[in-house]
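Query structure, 297 tokens:
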């Protein structure tokens, strides 16, 4: 095939582009699997997906809050903190020379803004199917396909499905009343999990009614005033603690004392678990749920 010759100016521009350090990440957008030692995760859900496949990220955004809100899976001390999840440290990430960025759709920096540094892969929490558990399973498969770790994904998903099935067989019918899942944002506002959330999907699988039947957002959660909790009668409440002592402040409020599950001593405190996670968070939630129901029945 005939190719017309390039003029001198155009040739110089192309040479400058090829010699630019920004050119090399563009070349890496091929189908070659990324270097597993140099993956940066800028959101906690893809961090969890990576760990589920046995891969330790090079860096993660906002590690202190990861410890508070996610807790498990634990991050090795070698993982580097690259700053806030919404506005990570671009200069530091460029120095780390990542092979891949993992992102969450709808939260944090856009794939386009990072693609000059390295290839990106984004994951959706809500794909519109109304089945967060299946979305989580598919996210594991998708990441495994990108990283060439299909066998690890298959083993993990077998463990995941076995735990779900075994937990369901043990707790199904154990909850005699609806269960409320919540944390506190501050002394006056609660974060509740409802329709469309990952753990609501788990509750339905366990044939347990979710006590929160109100509005929810894209992620299946809602931030409400604690007075809204007083509108929920006859529920067992599971409070997920993040080490911030907010519950100790809330209990001093006269409003708190009139909440039915408080008056009836049906409130249990559990350790943190990531509400917006995937398979590993679901497995942790299943263990905590079984523990709570077993302790309270």
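Result returned for the query:
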């Amino acid at each position: 095939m005939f190719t017309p010759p390039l003029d001198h100016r155009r040739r110089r521009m192309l040479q400058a582009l090829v010699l630019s350090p920004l050119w090399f990440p563009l070349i890496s957008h091929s189908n070659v699997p990324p270097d597993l030692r140099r993956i940066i995760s800028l959101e906690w859900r893809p961090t969890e997906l990576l760990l589920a496949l046995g891969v330790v990220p090079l860096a993660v955004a906002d590690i202190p809050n990861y410890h508070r809100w996610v807790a498990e899976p634990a991050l090795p001390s070698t993982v580097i903190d690259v700053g806030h999840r919404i506005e990570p440290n671009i200069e530091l990430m460029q120095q780390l020379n990542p092979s891949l960025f993992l992102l969450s759709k709808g939260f944090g920096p856009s794939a386009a803004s990072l693609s000059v540094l390295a290839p990106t892969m984004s994951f959706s929490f809500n794909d519109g199917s109304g089945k967060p558990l299946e979305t989580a399973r598919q996210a594991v498969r998708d990441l495994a396909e990108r990283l060439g770790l299909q066998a690890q994904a298959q083993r993990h998903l077998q463990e995941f499905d076995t735990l779900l099935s075994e937990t369901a067989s043990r707790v199904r019918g154990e909850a005699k009343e609806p269960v409320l899942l919540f944390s506190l944002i501050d002394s006056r506002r609660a974060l509740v999990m409802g329709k469309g959330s990952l753990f609501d999907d788990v509750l339905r699988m366990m044939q347990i009614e979710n006590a929160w039947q109100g509005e929810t957002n894209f992620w299946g959660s809602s931030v409400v005033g604690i007075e809204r909790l007083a509108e929920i009668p006859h529920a067992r409440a599971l409070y997920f603690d993040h080490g911030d002592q907010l519950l100790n402040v809330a209990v001093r409020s006269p409003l708190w004392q009139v909440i039915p599950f408080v008056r009836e001593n049906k409130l249990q405190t559990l350790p943190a678990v990531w509400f917006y996670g995937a398979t590993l968070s679901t497995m942790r939630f299943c263990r905590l749920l079984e523990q709570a129901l077993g302790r309270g029945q």
